[in-house]
Amino acid sequence: MDKIVKAVPLEDYRIEIQTSSGISGIFDVKPYLGGGAFKELENESYFRMVRPAHHGIAWPHEQDFSADTIIWDIQNAQ
């Protein structure tokens, strides 16, 4: 299973991603911000606390995205 090894927060709710298999790209979190669990990510300082975790990415209060979701979004955005 591919895992996220690098997650660098960028402007406009985007994250620079690198996976263990070498896939890289920009993951856009904006489409997910309106939902209840992800509402807190609208706070930019909190959004910047993102880190690789459990094969995907996560924030301190347990919001997360799986590597599968991130890779699918990156590949379909190009």
Please give a structural write-up.
The protein has 78 residues and is α+β, with helices and mostly antiparallel strands. Helix content is 19%, strand content 33%. The protein has a three-stranded antiparallel sheet, with helices on one face. The two termini are 22 Å apart.
What series of H and E elements makes up the topology?
EEEHEEEH
Query: What is the rounded distance between the termini?
Result: 22 Å
Helix content: 10-25%
The rounded Rg comes to 11 Å
> Regarding quaternary structure, how should these chains be classified?
single chain
* Average pLDDT rating: 95
Categorize the overall geometry: globular
Unreliable parts = none
Structure annotation, total helices: 2
Reading side by side through the largest sheet, how are the strands ordered?
Answer: 1-2-3
- Secondary-structure class: alpha+beta
Keywords:
78 residues, alpha+beta, three-stranded antiparallel sheet, 2 helices, globular
Secondary-structure blueprint of this entry?
Elements: E1 4-10, E2 14-19, E3 24-28, H1 44-47, E4 51-53, E5 56-58, E6 64-65, H2 67-77
Antiparallel strand pairs: 1-2, 2-3, 4-5, 5-6
Summarize the structure.
Helix content is 19%, strand content 33%. The protein is an alpha+beta fold and 78 residues long. Strands 1-2-3 form a 3-stranded antiparallel β-sheet, covered by helices on one side.
